[in-house]
Amino acid sequence: MDSCDRRVRAYKNGKTMDECKAIAESLNPDFKKQIDQNHKILWTEILEAVDHDELVYKLTLKFLRRDGYDIGNYKIPEVKSFSP
After folding, report:
1. Spatial contact of 56 and 45, defined as CB atoms under 8 Å apart
2. How far is residue 55's CA from residue 10's CA, in Å, rounded to a whole number?
3. Cβ–Cβ < 8 Å for 71, 64
4. More confident residue, 12 or 47
5. In this structure, are residues 15 and 23 in contact, taking their beta carbons and an 8 Å threshold?
6. Is the model's pLDDT at 1 over the cut of 50?
7. CB 3.0 to 4.6 Å from 43: which of 21, 51, 66, 77, for a disulfide?
8. DSSP per-residue letters across the chain
């Protein structure tokens, strides 16, 4: 029986999951700088920066949360640092 290997599935523009993760990781330092300077970044700014690629957008938010940032929710669509 043939089955699809999810690890090599092509997403937007033919990128694999690993390539999308690498792109999200490479964009995060710039987002972190912007958060440190402006104390927040809006979800829409992140979405525009990743060229409306939903998978990279979601991975970016996931990695920012992993790195200790508050990624907000649907009522507060912004990423900011946690207050000490």
Report:
1. no
2. 11
3. yes
4. 47
5. yes
6. no
7. 77
8. -----GGG---GGG--HHHHHHHHHHHHHHHHHHHHHHS-EEHHHHHHHTTT-HHHHHHHHHHHHHTTEE---SSS-EEEEPP-
HSE at residue 59, side-chain half, CA atoms within 13 A, is 19
**Average pLDDT of the residues in 40-53:** 94
Which residues on neighbouring strands pair with residue 41, listed in sequence order?
A: 79
- Burial classification of residue 49, based on how many CB atoms lie within 10 Å of its CB (0-12 exposed, 13-18 middle, 19 or more buried): middle
Give CB contacts under 8 A, 24+ apart, made by 8-12: 11/53, 11/55, 12/53, 12/54, 12/55
